[in-house]
Design a protein that fits this description.
166 residues; mainly alpha; Arc Repressor Mutant, subunit A; 2 domains; globular
Length: 166
Amino acid sequence: MNESSPASQVAPDADSQLKQRITEDMKAAMRARESQRLTAIRMLTAAIKQKEVDERKHLDDAEVLAIIEKLIKQRRDSIEQYRAAHRPELAEAEEFELALLSAYLPAQLGEAEVAAEIARAVSESGASGARDMGKVMALLKPRLAGRTDMGRLSGLVKAALTPAGA
């Protein structure tokens, strides 16, 4: 293998389009002096940089989306806890971050589109029962990452693979 071939080298600033968009949004927030938005974007960039340092590589769009989804899940959990603790001001701050993070996700799929993808994955994998759920999910995760809630998807796959009345 030739070490100097262009295909074997990745430029250190070959960022994903999503990371570039986040960086541009951070610059815009700085220029507009939007401190709450800037703080939320910095939190996101810090999470991305931490993952890059931990894994010693530059992340692609799919990996950045996974981080965003994780942060969204954390925000939803926090909002629920703050509401239960009667802390509306903290819940509102989390809701702001949730809205900001959600804006980076691709358009969400509708019920019919998700059902069609599940049917396609079941057909492709040859799944015949609940024990084949892993095969189906392995096909669906890369296709639907960021476009649907994976927890909900898991439940729909399980329902599709479980015979009626079982």
